[in-house]
Amino acid sequence: MVQVPRRTAFADSALVRLLARWNEAEVRPPTASTAERLSQWLAWTDAIALSTVLNAPAARAKAAGTPDDECARVRDGLARTIREDSLYASVDETAVGTIDFAPYRLRYLARQQAMEAGVGPLRAKLRGALAARSAEMAKLATVDAVMEQALEAREHSLLATVPALLEKRFKRLRQAATPAPDASETDAAPLAWLPVFHQDIRDLLLAELDFRFQPVDGLLEALRSH
């Protein structure tokens, strides 16, 4: 029987827990039915009816190598780019009052696009490697392809809201650091919040990277198990 790798539900991921911590609230959608639907979207075994795929015969593909090294290379490269991004590396003390969220939004969107461009080909290669192992594994590869297609639009819609939540965090930190009108210059530290925000961006991007790599990790696990 084909064992479909489970994926962490969106509401249980480090990405959502981090956003919730910023808002000092638990990760709970407003209604139980909404939570149920969200779980169904992103839990591998419950997201969509797959009986047609699971019951259909699957032909083996030609032998293909296991791309473990490439997966590690892509993931490490994306993580390194996030950690070493020059936009988060320094604070310009002369920029007080002129710092805007727009550059951060553009950079975050660029990082999301890079993740999408990196994860998609890896999943395809892993499916090819699975299909070369056995008819049963070929069926699992087909299941993953169906799941990716079924959940892609919903997942993209959810992740597209992250930059807006990040902007709220930016404004909240900036507002909290704004000195009172009667504060002296020696008491004010108007940019002390910015390194905190820079670390928040890194943490958020790395959490999203982990989330996006969950299907890749599941497929790699299936390969290693067989």
Please give a quick description of this structure:
The protein is mainly alpha-helical. It contains 9 helices and no strands.
Rounded to the nearest angstrom, the radius of gyration is 21 Å
**How many helices does DSSP assign?**
9
Element string (H = helix, E = strand): HHHHHHHHH
Structural class: mainly alpha
What is the number of beta strands? Answer: 0
The share of residues in helices is 55-70%
So what's the oligomer here?
single chain
Distance between the termini: 13 Å
Strand content: under 5%
Largest sheet: none
Number of domains: 1
Which outline best applies?
elongated
Could you name the ranges where pLDDT drops below 50 across 5 or more consecutive residues? 1-5, 25-39, 42-54, 61-65
Mean pLDDT: 76
Blueprint of the fold:
Elements: H1 14-22, H2 32-42, H3 51-55, H4 68-83, H5 102-133, H6 135-159, H7 162-177, H8 194-212, H9 214-225
Helix pairs in contact: 1-8, 4-5, 4-8, 5-6, 5-8, 5-9
Account of the 3D structure:
It is built from nine helices and no strands. The chain is mainly α and 226 residues long. The protein has one domain. Mean pLDDT is 76; it is low at 1-5, 25-39, 42-54 and 61-65.
